[in-house]
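Worked example 2:
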Amino acid sequence: MRRLIVKLGIVSGDRIHITDKEDVSYLSAVLRMKEGDALLVSDGSGKAWEASVYMISRDAIELRVLSEHPVQEEEKTRVTLYQGLPKGSKMDEIIRKATELGVYGIVPVATARSITGSVNTVPTKLERWRRIAKEASRQSMRLRVPEVSGLMGFEEAAAGLRDSGYDLVLVAYELEKETTLKQALKQAKLSDKRDKPLNIAVFIGPEGGFESAEADRLVSEGAVSVTLGDTILRTETAGPAAVAIVLYEMD
């Protein structure tokens, strides 16, 4: 069944009134839905509705609610990606791929090796990043859109770890020679009671990775330093790869 993520608050009684131009175009021009066609609609808050197309016009689509469905957790593991801010448009691709792979949330982080020019442009890019996450969720038929947070400074991100509620924090560090990502996940799996979703944070550096002081700072806050393998990955590859590995190993 086709799926659509809509804005909060547009479900009223047994009607869903869609006026967002992008959503109207997606349903009518891309999916070519007609009156009577069924789809599953979510507002990203944990609720979903099976609905049918009641009316289509050029500027709006009205759906009729057939039944309400609780949104099941997509994974037993929630992975939040703390991504060191890269140069240019690389963050676009990181968000797109990580969302397709099942990331729970994405936090851009300004690290020592993040370029000042990239940091300064974040406020103008944030809306686009959130739109990319929504589009990638729709394309991959997810019912939840991962939250893309505003930019965090490195110290703010590190200082918040102890009270964050994460079950495991991982930092990918190219100078780590002993602990592999698989080993760290295996240890977490042994102590996992699985009575609730497992929350894991993954820190990935920008181009050039983390400085040694940054890696040490994260470890001092309880993070586990891990290697992703013998090869050095680009930052736009490392984040999505780590998300995929964590979800595969833990689910």
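Residues 121 and 188 are 37 Å apart (CA to CA). The mean pLDDT is 89.
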